[in-house]
Amino acid sequence: MQYDVIVLGLGAMGLAAAWQLAARGVRVLGLEQHIIPHSLGSSHGHTRIIRQAYYEHPAYVPLVQRAYAGWYELEQAVGQHLLTTCPCLSLGPADGELITGVKAASYEHTLPIEMLSADEVIRRFPAFQNIEPFAAVLEPTAGVLAVEDSLRAMAQVAVAHGAMLRDEVAVQSWRREGNSVCVSTAQGETFHAARLIVTAGPWATRLLAPFGIPLRLMRQVANWFAVSDRSLFRRDRFPIFIADTQAGAFYGMPAFDARGVKIAQHYGAPEVEQIEQIDRSLNPADQAPVRAFLRRHLPSADAPLREASPCIYTLTPDRHFCIDTLDDAVVVAAGFSGHGFKFAPVVGEILADLAIRGQTAQPIDLFGIGRFRAVHR
Ligand SMILES: Cc1cc2nc3c(=O)[nH]c(=O)nc-3n(C[C@H](O)[C@H](O)[C@H](O)COP(=O)(O)OP(=O)(O)OC[C@H]3O[C@@H](n4cnc5c(N)ncnc54)[C@H](O)[C@@H]3O)c2cc1C
C-alpha cells in the first residue's frame, strides 16, 4: 500500500503525529521498534508535569496552551482521565533562571501566578522546610499527565482514524526515490510514502548526526518514596514543585497513588552520545543527590525507596526543541531536552502541518535546525 506519511518511532511525539495526521484523513503508517508503550526511551514512568508559566522561554506559552486543548480533546476521544490539575511551586534564587523565567513568561502572557513568602509556603505546604533562602512562585494552572495511558490513548485514536501502527518493526534506513521516500526495516520490509517524519527520541542522536543535528543523551532516574505520613503529600497539601538549588535542580509531585511521592533531579548527569552508553541498571549512587535534597528541604519524604526508573533526556545544546524539515520530504522532531512530553498534542499538529503543507501557523522559530548549522559552520 502507498502511504502519504510514514512516522519513524512511536513514542510521545510519533504517536501524536500519527493521531493528528490520521484525524486529517491522511494515510499514515507508524513504525515502532519496541512495543507501545515501552520503558527504554523517554516516555515512561507514570507521570509528566504540564505547566504554563514556562521559565525556559515565553515562546513556549502559546504552544503549551494549545497542548492543553489537545490533551482535553484526547481525554474526550478515549473517555479517560489523563490530566490531573495541581498547582506548581517554583523555588529558587530571586534572580535565578527559574524564578525570573516563570515571572517573565507569566507577565508576557498574563498568566496568573502568586508570589509566596517562606512562611506562606510552609503554612500551605507543610512538608517543606528550610526554604527561607528561596523566592517562591505558585502557578495554579499546572498539572500532571498520565504518560503511558496518554501514549495508549494517542495510539487508540490514531488507529480509530485509520492509521496503521506497527510495533516491533525497526527502521534501518531511508532514502529519497524521486518525490517519495523509501523506508527499509531490519525485518527486511520496505515501505514508500510521500513524506517521512522522524520522531526517534534518544535514538535520534545517531539517525540525525549526519544532518548536522548535535544531540546528546542524559540518563535520569525518577524515584518514588514510600512516605509514612501520606496526608502531607495529598494534592491539596503538596504541590508539583521545581527547586533550583546550589546542588542542582529537583522536581517532584504529590503522592497520587500507592507508589508514593515522585522526586527526581533535573539534568546534572553526564552527557553521552549513543543510547548504548546509557546504564539501564539502578545504582545505589543514583539516589544520593535527591536524598541530600530531601534531608534538607523535605525530610518527611526521605523515606524508603518504593520504585525507581531510569529514563533518557535527548538534549540539544540550548535545551530548546528541534522541529523542522530536513528537506521537502523529511520532517524531524527531536531533542525535547527533558521537557517535551506536555507539548505532544501540539507537536503532533505541527508535524502534521509540516508533512502536509511544509509549514505551520504555530510559533516554532525557536526550534529550527539552522541554529545548529550556524554554530557548527
Ligand atoms: C525522567 C524524565 C522525566 C521527564 N519529565 C517531564 C515532565 O515532567 N514534563 C514534560 O513535559 N516532559 C518531561 N520529560 C521529557 C519527555 O518525557 C520527553 O521529551 C518525551 O517523552 C520525548 O518523546 P519522544 O517521542 O521524542 O521520544 P520517545 O518517547 O522515546 O519515542 C521515540 C520512539 O522512537 C522509537 N524508535 C527509535 N528509533 C527507531 C527505529 N529505528 N525504528 C523504529 N522505532 C524507533 C523508540 O523505540 C521510541 O519508542 C521527562 C523525561 C524523562 C526521561
Can you describe what's shown?
- This protein has helices at about 10-25, 60-80, 95-110, 120-125, 145-160, 205-210, 290-295, 345-355, 370-375, and strands at about 5-10, 30, 45-50, 85, 90, 115, 135-140, 145, 165, 170-175, 180-185, 190-200, 215-225, 240-245, 250-255, 260-265, 270, 305-315, 320-325, 330-335.
- By secondary structure, the protein is α+β, with helices and mostly antiparallel strands.
- The strands form 3 sheets. Strands 5, 6, 7, 13, 14, 15, 16, 17 and 18 form a 9-stranded mixed beta sheet that branches. Strands 1, 2, 9, 10, 11, 12, 19 and 20 form an 8-stranded mixed beta sheet that branches. The protein has a 3-stranded antiparallel beta sheet with strand order 3-8-4.
- Helix 1 runs parallel beside helix 5 (about 145-160), helix 2 crosses helix 5 and helix 2 packs across helix 8.
- It is globular, with a radius of gyration of 21 Å.
- The two termini are about 40 Å apart.
- The relative contact order is 0.20.
- Flavin-adenine dinucleotide (FAD) binds next to helix 1, strand 3, strand 13 and strand 18.
Cα-to-Cα separation, first versus last residue: 41 Å
Principal-axis shape equals globular
Number of helices: 9
Structural class per helix/strand content? alpha+beta
Radius of gyration: 21 Å
Helix content: 25-40%
Low-confidence stretches: none
User: What's the SSE pattern?
Assistant: EHEEHEEHEHEEHEEEEHEEEEEHEEEHH
List each distinct ligand once.
flavin-adenine dinucleotide
Major sheet: 9 strands, mixed
Oligomer: single chain
The chain-level mean pLDDT equals 97
Report strand %. Answer: 25-35%
Number of strands: 20
